[in-house]
Design a protein that fits this description.
single chain; mainly alpha; 3 helices
């Protein structure tokens, strides 16, 4: 996996510079000789990009399917909060606290000091 990152670190800037140079050449010297020169020096890039289109599309579809699966998983197992006003929260808890007894115990064990020690007295 590390070699893939190193390859991309070198390949992406080279490809970007090659495309940028072709754009500049066609912008400032749009002659037949310029087109022939770009075609002669950029044909490997065209072949490589053509070969990478299929794996790129497959990777995009895989990532989209994984995101959709995660979205469905969250939708299936997470219940929307109730909007009824009859719920009474315990005093001293935040509006989003789910288990007030746990938070009260942790707060009691932490104590008022900021040292992080637990007093056993």
């Amino acid at each position: 996996m590390e070699s893939k990152g190193a390859l991309l670190t070198v390949a992406i800037p080279l490809i970007v510079c090659k495309i940028w140079f072709a754009i500049l050449l066609l912008t400032y010297a749009p002659t037949r000789d310029g087109m022939v020169w770009i075609a002669a020096t950029h044909w490997p890039l065209v072949i490589i990009i053509g070969l990478l289109i299929y794996p790129g599309v497959a990777t995009f579809r895989l990532l989209r399917a994984r995101a959709r699966r995660e979205h469905l998983r969250r939708a299936e197992f997470m219940v929307a909060p109730s909007t009824r006003s009859t719920l009474v929260r315990p005093m001293g808890t935040a509006s989003g606290a789910q288990c007030s007894a746990l938070w009260e115990m942790v707060s009691r064990l932490e104590g008022d000091g900021a040292s992080g020690r637990v007093d056993n007295t």
